[in-house]
Write a structure and sequence with these properties.
The protein is α+β, with helices and mostly antiparallel strands and 247 residues long. It is 34% helix and 14% strand. The relative contact order is 0.15.
């Protein structure tokens, strides 16, 4: 990476610009030594390039429609082969990671790394009744697409230790908006959700999760209709055909 701050620490600004060019964004990160000492994250992080220990883990993902716009114009979106978004993600992010001297791991490949635990260590996220994490800026619309790992300590992460939005939300409109009542403070009833999606009454949810849409956080990052349909149909098919595919 070609940026440094006044103290000589590598910044993430050049990496962020490369990611934005292909539809992704930085979602935070942490230094493994500090987070592990604080007990904030499982220290079984991926190895850095060359197999050495990780010093910094960076979360890469998306929010809003930037990734959808970039992916929709890519060959993977219309070639008819399985897992088009995963293939686009791998094709575009692996070269960026290599150029920056970073290792890349993905949530759709084994071994299944604990992306949600990493996000909680990075800060700004909180568990939501919907099963996804909600971010104080992006709401429930942030998706994790990769993690980059460095052997050196990179930059600082100002959101480390900051809370996510859900504990401040008294009304919990996501719970009330779920037609089959699959959401509650006790957790997310995935079988009830899937059963509803398979019924005629579930058509509206297949066009976009009504519980997510009801979330008051990150409204400007909501999925566009075509984007919402893509993800909801992928979710329904993934859960119907996969066994223990990932966390």
């Amino acid at each position: 990476m070609d940026g440094t701050d006044p103290e000589g620490t590598e910044t993430l600004a050049p990496l962020a610009r490369q990611l934005e060019a292909v539809g992704f964004r930085l979602l935070g990160g942490f230094h493994t030594d500090a987070s592990c000492r604080a007990g904030e994250v499982d220290c079984d992080c991926p190895p850095a390039p060359g197999g050495g220990p990780a010093a910094t883990l960076i979360l890469v993902g998306n929010a809003g429609d930037a990734l959808w716009c970039a992916f929709s114009a890519a060959p993977e979106a219309c070639d008819g082969a399985p897992d088009p978004l995963d293939r686009y993600t791998r094709r575009t992010l692996q070269p960026i990671a290599r150029q920056a001297g970073l290792a890349a791991v993905f949530p759709f490949e084994k071994p299944w790394w604990p992306f949600q635990r990493w996000a909680l260590a990075a800060g700004g996220f909180s568990p939501s009744p919907m099963g996804v994490l909600a971010h104080h800026r992006y709401g429930p619309w942030a998706g994790f697409r990769a993690a980059f790992v460095s052997a050196s300590r990179l930059s600082d992460f100002p959101e480390n230790g900051s809370p996510g939005p859900c504990p401040t939300c008294a009304d919990k409109p996501c719970i009330a908006a779920c037609p089959p009542g699959a959401l509650s403070l006790a957790g997310y009833d995935v079988p009830a959700c899937l059963a509803h999606l398979g019924e005629p009454a579930g058509t509206a949810c297949l066009d976009g999760c009504l519980a997510r849409i009801a979330c008051p956080f990150g409204e400007i990052y909501r999925h566009a209709p075509a984007q919402a349909r893509f993800h909801m149909r992928a979710f329904a098919g993934w859960c119907d055909t996969s066994v223990n595919k990932g966390p």
